[in-house]
Amino acid sequence: MNQNYIQPDNWSIIEEGYDAERVKSSESLFSIGNGAMGQRANFEETYSGETFQGSYIAGIYYPDKTKVGWWKNGYPEYFAKVLNAPNWIGIDIEINGENFDLSNCSQVANFRRELNMKEGWYNRSFEATLKNDTLIAVNVCRFLSLDIDEVGVIKFEITPLNKGAVITYKPYVDAGVTNEDTNWEEKFWETIDIQNSENQAFVTSRTYKTHFVATTFMHNTIHLNGDDLKMQPEKVDATKEKIQFTYTVAVAKDATSSIQKIGGYAVSLNHDNTQLGAEKAIQDASAIGFDQLLQDQIDGWAKIWEMSDITIDGDVKAQQGIRFNIFQLNQTYLGKDSRLNIGPKGFTGEKYGGSTYWDTEAYCIPFYMATKDQHVARNLLTYRYNQLDKAIENAEKLGFKNGAALYPMVTMNGEECHNEWEITFEEIHRNGAIAFAIFNYHRYTGDYSYIPEKGLEVLIGIARFWHQRATLSTHKNQYMILGVTGPNEYENNVNNNFYTNYIAKWCLEYTAAQIHEVATKYTSDYQRIVAKTGISDFELQGWKKVADHMYFPYSEEYEVYLQQDGFLDKELVRVADLDKSQRPINQKWSWDRILRSPYIKQADVLQCFYFFEDHFSKEELHRNFEFYESFTVHESSLSPCVHSIQAAVLDKMDMAYTFYLRTSRLDLDDYNKEVEEGCHITSMAGTWMSIVEGFGGMRIKNDTLHFSPRIPKEWKGYSFKINFRNQILKVAVAQNETNFVLEGNTEITVNVNGKEVLVEPNNLVTV
Q1: What is the pLDDT of residue 1?
Q2: How high is the pLDDT of residue 184?
Q3: What is the SS3 assignment for 37?
Q4: Phi/psi at 383 (nearest 5 deg)?
Q5: 3-state SS, residue 697
Q6: E strands of 560-715, at which residues?
Q7: What are residue 546's phi and psi, to 5 degrees?
Q8: Catalytic hit among 157, 426, 489, 629
Q9: Is 427 a catalytic residue?
Q10: What is the pTM of this model?
Q11: What would the pLDDT profile of 313-363 be if each residue is shown by its tens digit?
């Protein structure tokens, strides 16, 4: 049974009723972020129940030494960890001498949380009766500023309802934090300085090994019935890692007291002197004040939604799902800083430690290209260009030569830091996704300049890797790629994974074509690249030989490409015939049993059909989809979106809709029973794709936007906007028509269901 406590609402995530069993799940779902930092929805006050404390700073990590019982050549030295950062939100509270803790209250009523996605704030309210019989009403509002992205703001209000109360607020900053997922129970931070003056405090910490410095700060004001009491702390307690202030205020029955706390991080990524950076952040935020900061937040999110919103008419759960996904993507990454990337859990948890997977290139770039301007997607590509030297180093560790590049499965700084050999050494298809993203960026934006400036060097490194990784089978006189793991991680160390072989062949051909293009049209870039890489016609002939003679396993019996050699040797029991009590198999079965089964964790052959749809006929897609869908258990968050898009292409709309709901509400309904560990951020971009590319049928062919709109029977209509080459096109699909409106100055021609349609600026066109 999926969880279903989140109330359906078009614009908000709402929980009603306090349940200690749900606290950790809600901490993930109600997380907030602003692209530079993030915060799980932990309570500010003491909470002695089950909780997973989490505050995170973008770009700050720790190389936690890999824990394995054996070592192999080329094995990553460490597994990078997104760090749990010092806690800035904490406020211990005493009421009439009793420590306030929801877990210990004799009664909690009218508990409600709301994550308002439209305006970008999180609110929690309830009434609680303490053991000393004081009844209080609490309202807490929290947000992370989009404008001053080092700053978070909390307004914590308490109203005594049955008698007056002496309320003691004890706000603190605590750097004595640990990661839940540390390998060796190590501390990752050392505190190097603690300062305070008047209502502000600063704790400066440095990470061991990586030596990132962060000054975590707070500034507090105490209010009574809305008036600032101009109080100074009556007491300051400082230990080696923590500083805490004490403020006491007498509050009459039905009067409202509050603490307003400004907090956050100034980090060495952005400041030579983090203490001065923190002081400035406080100064800037204080000068603006809570009310105006909140208004600026609402305005900032309005601007984001103006471009990225998708509306769905007639299906609240579907609407809530897509907005939650779009909201979390924007909380995680806003494209301002090319040093940053999109972690699979974003700022909602620690799982998957590293910052960057192939998810960014395969799933996220299309979302950012269409909902922001092209600089954001270009920043994501630049991130990989800046790490090319490390990718070449990664390949050298495995014995590859001559500038061959293997991009890491998981990385923070370009070094591989994933600690499972079958992924690290074998899941090499990730290299192909990085090349595909370069192609996809050019196809979508029309901006070729990235390729001669940066992209071609990346492509050459990747092509060299594929050329060297292929093995000539004298038996078949064809090239094979042996000992790999495909996107379906439920099979390791297989030979000739179809998707891997196909993308390798494509990379070799695409790179050769780009070398020719740059040689012809960008001669100075070409000469620079030849001087740097030593690329030659002789080498290109070798690539061509491998690409032309690549082997692809195929079944004449089923008329499908085989996921890999030997797939048909498995016991082919379809998912529909699998006992439901055995699901999810990743929690019920041994790894040995999973590896021998035909079950597919996520789209594999079908991932290839998704990337290279126009290389195959619809009949081929239909046969492969029918065959592989029947063995797919979708135990990866990245799987349902690809199946949703392809089901839509094949007019299997009920199936497409079911997969859409699964991908959009994966976390809200906790399909995988693990949301307390954090949300699945990168797959959320797949949710966006399943509407725009699936139901909307959007494709780019020959520099032209193509649409083949479809609509689930459950919906009255849906709409989305895309920024295509600096022109904003709004597409609205109803049951019997599609409307286009262009915001821009120049008319464009789009192709709808195979027919050309002229769309003029600010003119409604109905098809």
Answers
A1: 42
A2: 66
A3: strand
A4: -50, -45
A5: coil
A6: 560-561, 699-701, 704-707
A7: -65, -45
A8: 489
A9: no
A10: 0.96
A11: 999 999 999 999 999 999 999 988 888 999 888 999 987 766 788 899 999
